[in-house]
Fold NAD(P)-binding protein.
Amino acid sequence: MGISGLPGTTYVAGHHSAVFELYPKIMDTVTGILELAKATMERHPVTISIAVIFGLQHILRRVRKTRRSRILLRTRERVLVIGASSGIGRAIAHEYAAKGSRVCVVGRREQQLQQVADECASMVPVYAAGSAPDEASRILPIKADFCNVDDMVALREQLEKEWGGLDTLVISAGVSALRPLLEVAGVERRDGAFYPLHAGSEGVRCAVSAGTAAMQGNYVGPLICAVTFIPLLSSTSPAPSILLISSLAAVVPAPTRSLYASTKGASLLLYQSLAIEHPSIAFTYVLPSTVEGDFRASAVDGGHVREADPSKHGLRRDAVAKRCLEAVDRREKAVFIPTFTGRVGHLGYWLFPSIIERIAARKYNYTAQ
Ligand SMILES: NC(=O)c1ccc[n+]([C@@H]2O[C@H](COP(=O)([O-])OP(=O)(O)OC[C@H]3O[C@@H](n4cnc5c(N)ncnc54)[C@H](OP(=O)(O)O)[C@@H]3O)[C@@H](O)[C@H]2O)c1
């Protein structure tokens, strides 16, 4: 019989008694879980603390900020991708085009660039096509070198003319370097001894020249882009955003990558500082580990690939590009791909540097002679 005698109250009362019967079991389970957590915490305090911090950060990231695409509709978004003729930049250009944004693809190889522009044009969704007043310039291929000031200023002028401004700047252009620095200078080390004993002037100049090329492609280019486009972004977009494709190597050192890592680190810190100088712009830095593709062909020191074949073992470009768009939309700051490996490597280097150094040496098949 129900509490008040009304139809359905029997069920309610039955339901309550079932809950009361279950209550001790629920409490037992909760107590068991808490005890297990306590025991695990006692045994692995560092691991659990790191997991809890990452978990909380992940949850906060998800709930904290309004998505940028709610303020700036994708179909209104004007995106400039520097380094879009191949690789990650090309995949990012595809993603934006498929969401109906206006996309300007930039690189030095004209033919590849035109091909990417054609691919992008074929991906524009039906609902977006015809929605922009400047439809003819929805997808813009522009041949330019991001290390060349005149090219970048001309690019800005063209964007002002075609689109009247810019919302999103993506910097994916960069160059690799693959050799131990002393090897670049013509000095080899065998059994702890150097051959020849010292680097000659010519050798030192070789190392300087490779370092300067790495600096140009990984630091000066991003610097020129920042100076050229930050005022345009700030003054013409309701939600300006900059995405820098950095690298895990920018925060976790690796053998044979001294020139690459140091120059990627320089641009990362440059942009991190700019983010404080320009708080109205949302800066996102993506730090992927190895990605599939031909990036290593751009090596400024002509070295060979030592690690496992990136095209077999690397991250998929499309997956990296999707994560980049999500990060920009959520206005995330530093994004490691994969998250766990990247964050553990980053933090691990400061806590247990020698372990991370050993892992890095193994990854790049490097043994100090
Ligand atoms: N691949 C990886 O394993 C990996 C891992 C972590 C981070 N990253 C970073 O991801 C970014 C993209 O790499 P990716 O794998 O996509 O390599 P990619 O296929 O070689 O793409 C590099 C792009 O940059 C452009 N570029 C290079 N120098 C340029 C210049 N001076 N001016 C204009 N464009 C220039 C290239 O175009 P043009 O040659 O036509 O100019 C190309 O479109 C790089 O910044 C790299 O550091 C790569």
In short: Residues 201-236 form the longest helix (36 residues). The longest strand covers residues 282-288. DSSP finds 13 helices and nine strands in the chain. Residues 83-89, 107-109, 112, 145-147, 172-175, 217, 221, 245, 247, 264, 288, 290-291, 293-295, 298, 310, 314 surround NAP (CB under 6 Å).
